[in-house]
Amino acid sequence: MAQGSRTSSYARRYERWAAPLRGREGIVRGLGLANRVIVWVFYLAYALLVGLILPGTFGDEGLSTVAAVPGFKALAFWDTPLRCLSLAGAVVVIPALGFVLLSLVRAKLDVPRPAEGAGIEPLVPRPGTGRSFPSRHAFSAFAIAASWWVASPTVAVVLLVFAGLLAVLRVVAGVHYPRDVVVGAAIGVATGALVVAMAELLKMMM
Fold this sequence. Notes:
There is one protein chain. By secondary structure, this protein is mainly alpha-helical. The protein is built from eight helices and no strands. It is elongated, with a radius of gyration of 20 Å. It has helices at residues 2-18, 25-53, 64-67, 81-109, 114-117, 136-147, 153-173, 178-205. 35% of the residues are buried.
């Protein structure tokens, strides 16, 4: 009975958020488009981060040239191929492991999406069922944003804002509960923080 009360309560709250948008096809299409665009922003941001670091493994000066660009002074330490390779390993391996582990946990829990669990009508329908908690989109966005701190704190802060916007959009679209994106974001930030901590440890070791 309590579970049914909670789900109906969430359905009422969601409808209060969604009601002003229903029937406005342009806004709803924009909501779906914004979600897809921001997801691609993070794909590109991650590719750019790895693409900045990896080339330094093939030259004598590492990332010295990149570190001279305003906003990228954080890369000054990584001035040899070995140092660059170590940083690239942290940036690639830690988020990848986090993604795999979170995916396994999410599949094991198999929490219903709001459309199933709360009976809402999402503004942006999503194919498939279950695997709602934690949000993998929120995890990935926040992990990538936080990982960028090793290269440019300024870029990292901008990406964190976009990650927050993506998390909100996922809830408004009706494909996730707020708890899904909050937990996914928290794990993502922790993963990114681990990348930064590993980079600091590598500095002390090298």
